């Protein structure tokens, strides 16, 4: 992901970057031959140079990533496992972005820092996957978000462009089955598709082809499956001023959060944080919708008369709609749930005290950061940004002044983070406390 990421998912770039090559660049399309591309720097492969055509005869999985995508970093062990399991029939190729398009604040050190970061990840997880370091592929193929995965058949045909892949999916693809994977588009493809379905936020979704065909809705209130032609849209919270409530491209968990808490997500600054557990508990044997959240995305639209457009009424109608369609009953209960107590030694309370005024934050290229004149609250924000769906972090340090701290760790690895914090006299203790939690059961 990216810096202090208070949003999740794909690290997006500005479409203007690609405008100068949009008319001439060849980019991949599902069902067509993959444009050839030459990589000039490849490691952990039989040659230090390679092209996409060199891999014909085997299935080729090209997994493009950048150093600011924490989801990409966390998936490296899985990529390594798949590469080992399907050795002989499928070749994996990681492509690390060495340009500066995703870098924060115009930083231009991605070329070196991503190499250092990968070396550390490779050593930690014992990776044995060929990797190319390149930036031109991202521009030629119009890659504006990561992960970006190309699945290419042995005869060079692009079968899928997606952002996730598991062992069962790959086995099915290799066996010749046609399956559904979450679909991604090149930025050039997206530009061409933008006129197919335009979404106007001032009109209800799916009315007069607003965002899709009129006939594709379920009811009005309206529930439909999401398709990749429609730009996802999530409100920060449910209010009372909307002509219509439109939540587009949301999974089941997010919809239930809106219905019961009035918001689909919250960060460490929210009053719900550490008082309400971020992930609902599903007490149901029907786990397909929950397990495959990335593939079961929905659009929900609700239009009410002005007299009923209150937060409470909108949430009540939405709860009823979800119960009617999905058949679950949901309740908010108090349960003992895990959380991390951030604690400090007496010595750390003295030694960590900021030496001078002046807030600053610097990322360590191979993992971690240096923060000066930072509050403990901001430190918790950094920890949260890498572990948004895990146990919340609670300040129990009794440190009331700002601090200077260096954390050298793979931030997506909580145990690595804990080891680094301990060197500074801090620690994360996994304990339990009573929290509100949304429990969803069969009706």
Q: What do these coordinates show?
A:
This protein has 443 residues and is α+β, with helices and mostly antiparallel strands. It has 3 domains: 15-193, Glutaredoxin; 214-326, no CATH class; 336-439, no CATH class. The chain has helices at residues 70-74, 76-85, 110-125, 136-140, 167-174, 187-193, 252-261, 288-291, 311-326, 346-351, 376-386, 414-423, and strands spanning 38-39, 42-43, 50-51, 59-65, 90-97, 131-134, 148-152, 158-162, 222-225, 245-250, 281-283, 298-302, 328-344, 360-363, 369-374, 393-395, 403-407, 426-442. The strands form 5 sheets. Strands 2-6-5-4-7-8 form a 6-stranded mixed beta sheet. The two termini are 37 Å apart. Residues 1-25 have low confidence and may be disordered.
Summary, kept brief:
With 443 residues, the protein is α+β, with helices and mostly antiparallel strands. The chain contains twelve helices and 18 strands. It has three domains: 15-193, Glutaredoxin (3-Layer(aba) Sandwich), CATH 3.40.30.10; 214-326, no CATH class; 336-439, no CATH class.
